[in-house]
# Entry
Amino acid sequence: MKIFISKVWAYKHTRLIIGTLVVAIAVPGIYLINGVSDNVQKMKAVEDVTYFPDYPAVNSQGKNLTLIKRGEYLAKAGDCIACHTNTPEKGKTFAGGLPMVTPFGTIYTPNITPDKKTGIGNWTDEQFIKAMREGISPSGHYYYPAFPYLYFSQVTTDDLKAIKAYLDSTPAIEQQNVKNDMLSTIRLANFIF
Ligand code: HEC
# Structure
């Protein structure tokens, strides 16, 4: 009898454990699939767009043109324009605002023009390097990995300074960043990984 009871108990527990596992896997799974299909829908919608933002004319007055040109080359290679321009709405180059849909919410890319109020015009080289290399903002928060800072972590300090010099020489666009609409737990997960 005792054995029978413990078998029933174990059986019930097995069901509970399996049930919990199924829920634990299925819920984020469905969430993920939904997010991905949303993304695909958005991308399809964007495919029809024939608008490609232009690289702006640089203002190199009083600055090191060679450095700016090198930065421009690197910024083109890093494709900063693709994420930091709201192409679907014909937004201004580097002024951000492009919605990036993830399974955990929507991230809006920030303004990286040299505007002092809404862009990165007040950033020092050190702050820029830290953001690009470590994914940490001047106020000390971690960026979401949608900003592919991991890929930029190997870029040399001189190259990052060149990118900053280039961005500084592009037109300052006053455009307030859009607040992200993300689950706050993601920053925590980001921190752990
Ligand atoms: C795949 C898209 C993508 C690409 C490519 C990309 N970025 Fe970003 N970037 C982002 C996102 C998304 C954020 C915001 C992350 C967040 O809010 O946590 C960001 C944030 C930043 C920030 C921080 C701005 C702020 O106000 O805090 C800087 C600086 C930046 N990117 C510079 C660059 C440069 C320079 C390049 C090209 C070398 C580049 N990014 C390429 C997506 C991208």
Remarks:
- The pocket of heme C is lined by residues 75, 78-80, 82-84, 100, 107, 109-110, 112, 120, 128, 131, 137, 143-144, 146-148, 163, 180 (CB under 6 Å).
